[in-house]
Amino acid sequence: MTMPDDMRAHNRQLIADFRADEGRSMAGRPLLLLTTTGRRTGQERTTPMMYARSGDRLFVIASNSGAKRDPHWYLNLVADPDVTVEMTGVKFEAKAVPLSGDDYAEEWSGIKATYPFFEEHEQRAGRPIPVVSLIRQ
Fold this sequence. Notes:
There is one protein chain. By secondary structure, this protein is an alpha+beta fold. It has 4 helices and 6 strands, in the order H-E-E-E-H-E-E-H-H-E. The protein is globular and about 35 Å long.
């Protein structure tokens, strides 16, 4: 997947399309909007992203497309785990909880099996890719 030159403009358009189209976009990948609180500014930051499910659990993956650093949205939710999630036809408050230990290993393995491109992201990044559970409040 080629990354856009202006990621902020791309994300603004994706958010607008998501809201206008009730979440049915992103080339067959499940999409949600995650709103975090900026760790420095205190302002709300909304980021479109793919998500994964395992049973009744909902996860977002902080791969940052294989970048060496964690994405800003992840750093924001580590600082303040209270987030808002928008999915097709529903919006809710959630607690963002990064997985660890055996839970992380099991879910990350399943996510990579379903979406093999995450294996490439992990190799490029050279860092553990955080997996975050979004627990509805």
